[in-house]
Amino acid sequence: MGLTLRNIKGSKLTTTELDGNFTYLEGLSGNGPTGSSGTSGTSGISGTSGISGATGSGIGIQSFQTLTQGAGIPWDYTLGYNASVLLTTSTGITITGATNGDYGTLKVTQDSTGGRRINFPAGNLFPYGTYSFSSTGTASDLYSFVYDGSNFIWNFSKNFS
């Protein structure tokens, strides 16, 4: 049994990409490839201290990408799973590149006028079938989703200011 790690774009991670990205992984065993000795670890996947003994800042840390609002809000998920947008008008959103099991966070900030909203298309599910946004100018809302291969299933928290 082997373990394949992929980056957000789906490409296999190289040894260089792995260095500095993992503190440790537990429960890995089997006859996977053996890596070279790392800084503080034993050896590779078959070792007990991580991949090639690498140490780093954690798994999946990523800054927010800024989405640009035009006729709609396009979000290319392959460029990042954290995104933010400043609403200057009410508009729709389209998320591309997500695959089954993906998740993400969208920070939505009102312009100084406030009262703007995103109109989510079909295939977006919300608690109790509804969603809303802060109406106060400059307030922010956080929307988080998981994608099940067919639907974006959202949860949200409002009115951070």
Can you tell me about this structure?
A hairpin with a 4-residue loop joins strand 8 and strand 9 (152-160). This protein is mostly beta strands and 161 residues long. The termini are far apart. 2% of the residues lie in helices and 29% in strands. It has two domains: 1-59, no CATH class; 65-160, Sandwich (Jelly Rolls), CATH 2.60.120. The chain has one helix at residues 15-18; strands spanning 65-66, 73-76, 82-87, 91-96, 103-110, 118-119, 124-125, 140-147, 152-160.
**Could you estimate the helical fraction of the residues in percent?**
under 10%
Rounded to an integer in angstroms, the radius of gyration calculated over CA atoms is 20 Å
The SSE string, one letter per element, is: HEEEEEEEEE
Strand coverage percent: 25-35%
Profile the largest sheet.
6 strands, mixed
Q: Identify the CATH architecture of the largest domain.
A: Sandwich
Low-confidence segments, ≥5 residues, pLDDT <50?
18-39, 46-59
User: How far do the termini sit from each other?
Assistant: 49 Å
CATH class of the largest domain: Mainly Beta
Name the average pLDDT: 78
Give the strand order of the largest sheet, numbering strands 1, 2, ... along the chain. 1-3-5-8-9-7
**How many β-strand stretches?**
9
| Quaternary structure type | single chain
Total of helices: 1
Structural class: mainly beta
Total of domains: 2
The third-level CATH topology of the largest domain is Jelly Rolls
Shape descriptor reads globular
